[in-house]
Amino acid sequence: MQDRRFLSRLLLASLAAIVVGIAWQSGPVVVERLLVPPAQPRAVAPRADLPADERSVVETFRAARESVVFITTSWRIIDPWSRRSTDVPQGSGSGFVWDAQGHIITNNHVIAGADSAIVQLADGETRRARLVGTDPTHDLAVLRIDETGAPPLPVGRSAEIQVGQKVLAIGNPFGLDWTLTTGVVSALDRELPGAGGRGLRGLIQTDAAINPGNSGGPLLDSAGRLIGVNTAIYSPSGGSAGIGFAVPVDVVNRVVPQLIETGRYAPPVLGIEYDQRINELARRQGITGVLVLGVRAGSAAARIGLRPARITNDGRLVPGDVIVAMNGAPITNTEDFLAALDRHSPGTEIEIAFLRDGRRQTATATLDSPA
């Protein structure tokens, strides 16, 4: 009896050894299957609703997404032998719907030098765009496509923008379409070198990631209103360094209607003649401001009685008035003068401060439309 029990145990042990040996020879996966229960997906952990601030970002992006477009541009090259034309890709950027007529706002540098532009809508549809107008001074341009059905972005006001408030940027960095980045307004009234020697003034600085391809896209506040057009980055490496710049919405709202109506932008005029070189020479002699060298007949300057410089019969130069401030903002050179005019629209009343015979005087002028 004991022998039978011994033989049974020996047989079971031998069978177990054979099974383990087979499993070992088949690899660790077989051993695992023999020794471990089958793997199952992990249970999904429930979560609460999104916090209010996250929910706001999600809703703002969803509301604005359809109004943002992807712009690709190309050059047209003509083969000198076959005379056949070929479109060669030039670059890409972003833009957004301005109105129900299909006007698209972007940066001038996005479309500069291009022969054609294609606008891709949020639903994937593409349209060939027509150039309406450009303003290199503010790095803005207007394209037009057939009506899109996409809602125009609501427009905010520059005066309401505060350092520290949350902002959202939507664009197509590096061709990655409809990318959202978030951040805050880092600073206001920044200046960058611009076209034609004039700098871009009054820019919004933000730490929302702005990269190549974001240019022309909207900068939104937390209410989803347009507060700027993303236009430039500061980056030694060429990628986002947390320092991006946007053209303020008040500039956009002032420039775009002129571009749509006339194809170009011109600031209002005061009606004086000046010379930057003469002003620079005067500045070196301690005279700051803009020297009035001439006054156009019937202009705003003539209506308030500004006096130009004149030459006497014996050849002596008699200095005229020197403009030193507009609406309380100091005017030290021609750049200040042009920037001050650019902040206003034709028909606006502004206070002009000027020096006459060494005495400071003021007058209220109504700015004229450009000729």
Automatic annotation (TrEMBL):
Gene3D superfamilies xrefs: 2.30.42.10, 2.40.10.120
Lineage top rank: taxon: Bacteria
Single annotated GO MF: serine-type endopeptidase activity
UniProt keyword list: Hydrolase, Protease, Serine protease
Gene Ontology BP annotations: proteolysis
Domain PDZ per the UniProt entry, residue ranges: 259-333
Entries under PANTHER family matching the protein: PEPTIDASE S12 (PTHR43343), PROTEASE DO-LIKE 8, CHLOROPLASTIC (PTHR43343:SF3)
Family: Belongs to the peptidase S1C family.
Protein name in the entry: DegP2 peptidase. Serine peptidase. MEROPS family S01B
Source organism of the structure: Citreimonas salinaria
